[in-house]
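User: I'm curious whether this sequence folds into something compact or stays loose and floppy. Could you predict its structure so I can see for myself?
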Amino acid sequence: MITKHALTKLLRAGESYRVERTSSATNTDKFCQAICAFANDLPNGGQPGYLLLGVKDDGTLSGLRVTDELQQQMAALRSDGNILPLPLMTLEKVTFPGGDVLVVEVKPSLFPPVRYCGRVWVRIGPRKDVASEVEERLLVERRTATITTFDTMPCVGVGAEALDLELFAAKYLKRAIPADVLRTDKRAVLDQMAALRLFNLDNQCPTFAGLLLFGKQPKHTLHGAYVQYVRFGGRTNGSPILNELRFEENILSLIPRLDDFLDAAVIQRWPVPISTLQEKMVFNYPRWAVRELMMNAIMHRDFQSNAPIRLYQYEDRIEIMNPGGLYGNARPENFPTVNDYRNPVIAEAMKVMDYVNMFSRGVGRVQEVLHENGNTEAVFDLGKITVFNVVVQANPEPASVGAVETLQTPIKTPIKTPIKIMAVLAENPNLTLTEVAGKLGKSHSAVHRACAKLIEQGRLKRVGPDKGGHWDVLK
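Assistant: Here's the prediction. I'll summarize afterward.
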């Protein structure tokens, strides 16, 4: 971090491509643009940039008092998901007689271009601006020369024909890049993918991230790139197998299908009275917690392994195991407070699509949600080295209110309802469950339960996202 003596020199020297001053303590957009521009390091000086809060344009102090709250707000800019890939930055408060200065030091990124809300910001001398196409291409080429993670490496031998370019253009591009920027972007789709670290122009092939996110059949190249679900009828692997499914699509297609499956086939609900006139819903597993653990498994797994992500459901618990142990700066002694990213491009894409909300906070929030639902805390087994394993016990609360039969026995649905649902969906596979319920004159919960059983039985399958997807009636 910069010394007080060096900071004094920067205050006297004026703004440059490495220094930006501001007397404001509230202009978040300005701060994020500056952090993004410093991380991109367009001049390629290889030196950190400095955002100085509490300094006027002429280099004098504004009299700012740097509070703990201000430091926490500035630190949160790193991990709120608006600046991607995550910048490497540190903060330090320096006190002078005329006021405080909050120094935000930003180091050049190894994975440019860095974007703030989809835009690539760079510094041209003392001024910052959105990068031109030529400047962005320069940053892409610089990144290619410093590839260090598997998901950014070129998947040599696989051509553009292996990618679902329509999925990229229709679902992802317009969320990754602001609409006004896209309107002026006349580049070919593969050039656009390259700018997002999804395609390698030198080798004319997708990166592994591009293949995993948008590949038509990624499992043909990366044999372990799928999720395996097994439902056991007891408490051990030797128990009878009640159901087994594989989710083998690319990540952007897999996650919506997995979401539907979790909600329909894994998560169970029971109304529990809490007073004479009120009741609450109790879950065997809170949906958000299970979903977050699955998102983490997809985002952090080692895709070089031939083993799949395993979601095993037993009578009393679920277990999630994904290839690849703790990565980078994450260690058993600092987990889960310290995090690192084995697949930074995939992590960025999942944030862009809102599959994950905030970085570095998922595990803590999972434990909170489990506690609120009445479950015990998830148990993370960090001793397996080559895999990451988490166990979540089923909520014991239904047993205490006489609902143990509901937990152990599938919910019964009148036999005619599943047949009618399959007939309606065979006629129009684009209907939502709410629309199906309206056509049949049934409640949404009754249709939901019936679809859960049909999915478990392999008679019904959800393909694609909630919006724009469809149902396959299998038999």
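Summary: Confidence is low (pLDDT under 50) at residues 398-415. The first strand starts at residue 19 and ends at 22.
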